[in-house]
Amino acid sequence: MTENTVKYSENGFWIKKEADKYIVGLSEKGQDDLGEVSFIDLPETGAIKTTDTLIGVEAAKAMTDLASPLAGTVTAVNEALENNPENLNSTDAAMNWIVELTDVSTEDFVALQNESGL
After folding, report:
1. What pLDDT, on a 0 to 100 scale, did the predictor assign at position 116?
2. What CA–CA distance (Å, rounded) separates 49 from 64?
3. How is this protein annotated for GO cellular component (predicted)?
4. Given strand 6-8, what is the order of strands in its sheet?
5. Distance CA 67, CA 103 (A)
6. Percentage of the chain with pLDDT > 70?
7. Residue 107: CB partners within 8 Å, gap ≥ 6?
8. From the CB of residue 50, how many other CB atoms can be counted at a distance below 10 Å?
9. Considering the domain 16-111, what is its CATH architecture?
10. 0.85 exceeded by pTM
């Protein structure tokens, strides 16, 4: 597997592997499922499981909690989303990333989808 590989979760996230970090953002499928995002509830840094809510969003089509696509440790959060939740609808990964994870199982990452499901 090459570095900087991007995978997708069934519930609408893209996950990009960069060395030992995993960057998580909202995929085109997630954007399409939700519609225009108007509010986001961001996670705290620290341990997270796949049964835990990664983000809570209020959007045009749905108000929902999205579970984390991977278990690991949240080491960074895109705080800019708090005041600019519409950035989640951007196609620019530099704007629509949500968290950075470490301590992720490589097997769990490899098991994710290779395409966004759109």
Report:
1. 78
2. 18
3. cytosol; glycine cleavage complex
4. 6-8, 13-18, 21-26, 97-102, 72-77, 46-48
5. 17
6. 96
7. none
8. 13
9. Beta Barrel (2.40)
10. yes
